[in-house]
Design brief:
Length: about 160
């Protein structure tokens, strides 16, 4: 890390397999840094309170609410955002199951679903429900999302 001035530092982040440089303050959230400094706007800004999951990203493969994570704490750690899952079968599966309406919550759900499929591909209904509770959707009523997540896990288990 190189001191830029008393309030800001120039640091590098490892996002979606690429290295990005950004000027940050120690209090900047990861969500702010991704969206404003790096132009990665897929993680959505909503409650900024840890309640909705629209800002979900993976840090070291673990789902995190980027609105509650300090950017400075993620320096040197692999970060994956929805942009890193562009074109993944999970996106198609969500579309096929009508699990998207306005789409605002969708990046968070897809990132979280990706983590579930990687870590617990044989998750049962209760585990799926518990895992996805960190994300809120105000449109779909959740049934379509649950069906999409189950389909993603089935595909994972058959591959
Ligand atoms: S914006 Fe981060 S949890 Fe809602
Ligand atoms: S699709 Fe609109 S909030 Fe989930």
């Amino acid at each position: 890390m190189r001191a830029h001035d008393t309030a800001k530092s120039v640091v590098q982040f490892h996002v979606n397999g690429e290295t990005h440089e950004a000027v940050i303050r120690s209090a900047d959230t990861l969500l702010h840094t991704l969206r404003v400094q790096l132009g990665l706007t897929g993680a959505k800004k909503s409650c900024e309170n840890g309640d909705c999951g629209a800002c979900t990203v993976l840090v070291n493969d673990q789902p995190m609410h980027a609105c509650l994570s300090l950017a400075i704490e993620t320096i040197g750690q692999p970060i994956k955002t929805i942009e890193g899952l562009m074109g993944s079968p999970i996106q198609e599966t969500f579309v096929d199951h009508w699990a998207i309406q306005c789409g605002y919550c969708t990046p968070g759900f897809i990132v979280n679903c990706h983590a579930l499929a990687e870590q617990h591909p044989q998750a049962d209904d209760n585990t799926i429900e518990d895992w996805m509770q960190s994300n809120l959707c105000r449109c779909t009523g959740y049934q379509e999302i649950k069906e999409a997540v189950k389909a993603v896990l089935n595909q994972k288990n058959q591959s």
